[in-house]
Amino acid sequence: MIIDQTKCIGCGICTLYCPADAITVAVNAEGKRKACIDQDRCLECGNCIRKRVVKCPADAIYELPKEERSVGRQMRRFFSDPSTTHPLTGVPGRGTEEVKTNDVTGRVCRGELGFCLELGRPVLGTDVREIEKATMALAELGVQLENSNPLYDLLKDKEKGTFKEEYLDERFVSAIIEFTVPFERGEEILNKVKEIAQNAGTVFSLDVVCCYDEDGTLPVLALCEKMGMEPRFNSKVNVGIGRPYVIEREDRERRNAQ
Amino acid sequence: MTHSLHRRGTYEELKDEYLLLVTIANGVNNSPDAKDKLRRVLDEMWDVGPVNTGSNETGTILSGVSVDEIKQGFTKVPRIRCCFDSKEKIREMLKRMIAMDLGVSTTISGPRKDIEELCQEFGIHPHSANLSLQVWGTTERLPEEDVMKFITMCGHGLISRALVEDTIQKVKAGRMTPEQGAVRIGTPCVCGFFNPTRAVKLLQKYVPQE
């Protein structure tokens, strides 16, 4: 995002709304107060150009036409502005539909665990180098990242978990490392996550997706207890009324084969 | 993504907060009548009475968008997001979802055990759950917990620390009411998950005493 210096009246109304603290107001060479956006810090979240959010009285904030934006700036937008839709996923946002549609996609079935490590969330944001540290650590375990997550598109070596050089210095509000493993690998993964946390230069929010058993229990709860990782009481529950319903791996494979 | 997860606060603060997500799955059940189905859901949801709703494309009722604008803004893979501020309302909404029998994926975020109880009450078996295993890494760099309670109401990370801290200061100084402050902080949330009812309650403790 850019602030037109000829229009800006230096009121500073935009500064408070920037989650990346990228907007400052300073006195220019002509002695006039002007707001300016630090392009390194700007994550392209779009807050400042939303008319219902920052009501810039001078209408001074704008973005370059799409064809003039660099690939890096476009990537920032995909991972920071929830109103954008990445061509890879076809859904708005920076991840997949994970548990939201799990009753019909069967992304995570019984006997499996889905993991999400959302780098940069909350507050701090992340650069791609930080994401790469985590994906490389997970690659050591042979973890296959979710191929319909927009991060997948930025990988250089999917086996090693490295990213294309041109993206390494880009920064996002957050990016989700998403993958599914057999349930029995859960302990190994959670131990690796603890290791990733010790070496992290930012924060990440961790969550796990698990199907209910037929008797209504959630098998992952016992695993969490064993690992000393107590889940928060507030969760996200797919209540299971979508169709066509998929919960067993065999159902998913049959459906995918059709 | 998991934008309704990882909300901070005590059980007492969060026990009346339920977020509803009704989602068409891209490539699975985004049939030609998907938009019509979700328009029906939106009408029922509005009738039950959410405290906030919106869409990434249009913005939220909190920021001045009308329900008709949200309805008209449905994309080819439509979705509904809203926030209810009581267990009674989410119970009523779930009852209506089951009665409509539209076959669309429905997710509720809130206290897990309370949601499981509701499912049991209606005789449905929840499919899967997404559990928050907390925040890891350089957590010492995060704002204080009272600020985090507001920031995490927007899982997309669009509510800035500066906006929350400035609003708290204004309420403390008596220059803004909690109600005004809640709208101000919640406006950047574009999907409609920000809960103004809880935000007002959180801001009330900063109101200067007479």
Give the arrangement of secondary structure elements.
The complex is a heterodimer of chains A (258) and B (210).
Chain A: E1 2-3, E2 23-27, E3 33-37, E4 61-62, H1 71-78, H2 102-105, E5 112-119, E6 126-127, H3 128-139, E7 155-157, E8 162-163, E9 171-172, E10 175-182, H4 186-199, E11 203-211, H5 220-227, E12 234-238, H6 249-257
Antiparallel strand pairs in A: 1-4, 2-3, 5-10, 5-11, 6-9, 7-8
Helix pairs in contact in A: 3-4
Chain B: H1 11-14, E1 18-23, H2 34-48, E2 52-55, E3 59-60, H3 67-72, E4 79-84, H4 87-100, E5 105-111, H5 112-122, E6 128-137, H6 145-151, H7 161-172, H8 178-186, H9 196-204
Antiparallel strand pairs in B: 1-4, 1-5, 2-3, 2-4
Helix pairs in contact in B: 2-4, 7-8, 8-9
Sheet bearing the most strands of chain A, described? 3 strands, antiparallel
Shape of chain A: elongated
Low-confidence stretches of chain A: none
- Biggest interchain interface, per-side counts: A-B, 83 and 82 residues
Order of helices and strands of chain B: HEHEEHEHEHEHHHH
Binned, the helix content of chain B reads: 40-55%
Oligomer: heterodimer
Q: Secondary-structure element order of chain A, as H and E?
A: EEEEHHEEHEEEEHEHEH
How many structural units, i.e. domains of chain A? 2
The strands making up the biggest β-sheet of chain B line up spatially as: 3-2-4-1-5
Brief synopsis:
The complex is a heterodimer of chains A (258) and B (210). With 258 residues, chain A is an alpha+beta fold. Chain A has six helices and twelve strands.
Task: Provide structural commentary.
The complex is a heterodimer of chains A (258) and B (210). The N and C termini of chain A lie far apart (45 Å). In chain A, helix 3 packs antiparallel against helix 4 (186-199). Chain A has 258 residues and is of the alpha+beta class. Chain A is 21% helix and 21% strand. Chain B is built from nine helices and six strands, in the order αβαββαβαβαβαααα. Chain B has a five-stranded antiparallel sheet with strand order 3-2-4-1-5. The mean pLDDT of chain B is 95. Strand 11 of chain A pairs antiparallel with strand 6 of chain B.
